[in-house]
# Entry
Amino acid sequence: MRRFILSALIASTLAWNAQAADKIVVGTVPNTSDGPIICAIEKGYFKEQNIEVELTSFRTASDMTPMVVRGDIPIMGGGVSVSYFNALAQGMPLRYFLSRAQIRSHHKIILRKGLDAKVKTVADLKGLRIATTAAGGFSEYELGKALETAGLTLDDVETKPLAMPQTLTAMVNGAIDAAVLIPPFDGGAMRDGATMLVRLDHIVKPEMEVAGLIYNTDWAAKNRDLLDRFTAAYIKGARYFQKAVENGPNRDEIIDYFLKYAPIKNRAIFADTSWSDVNPNGKVVVASLLDQQDFYIRRGYLKAKIPVEKLVDEETAVRALKLLQAKGE
# Structure
């Protein structure tokens, strides 16, 4: 009898262990580019892959990077920036593997209230104080590319590194003249009377890779199956989110998710702003990564080019798509 009970307990324990979900902590700077991963959580796509995902919020991608390098968290989301390229140049175990936001990114140059009468074109930005998230960040790249279309460079304006929530305050009190803003912060500024000068995706070429997911390469090498399952679930989340980006019937549902996860709790801001597109297969715009790297080299932020195979892992998404296709998804 004791042997039977012991065998039953062992069998029960083994069954429980087999069903226990794999846990992955993902670091993020909360914004609408979190849409795909939030959808994958809320719609149960990670659960289908026996994965539990925990989102941990940070102020900037720079705050997350050391934790991913150490392996404290295996994956982080963030915008493409010079810090990523420099990290790779220093041999840090990082690799970009999924896109979170790209193409029709809806990033804008926003003018403070009352300045639209004076500033009509990109050329009129010369000499103005313009906020970007950080030196060497994606918004500085976007601003630089926009200025190039008017024969200007970043040296022709005064850039001010500010986090986007602080940018809104600075714009209202006149401390800055303009800013590169993304949803939902652009909507918040315009509700305060600011105006849009230009949508950057109309002039920044090639189509821009704005933000993605980056993993610790040591962790990825040891957890390939888990990484592939995570990616498959993420891709399903990206497809569901993209329907809402295109004003599909699930848009209100996604706004509910944003209100649950994001620091901004104003429904109207999410409803009134455009959200960044996401590739439905997680595919990264590699040409954009290379163009951004070239820009940072011209600015003197980088000394040498990083080989493309070190910049991005394109194979994980391919394997994940095969997993989905095998299930008819």
In short: The beta strands are 22-28, 51-57, 75-79, 94-102, 108-111, 129-132, 158-161, 178-181, 195-199, 209-216. The chain has a mean pLDDT of 90.
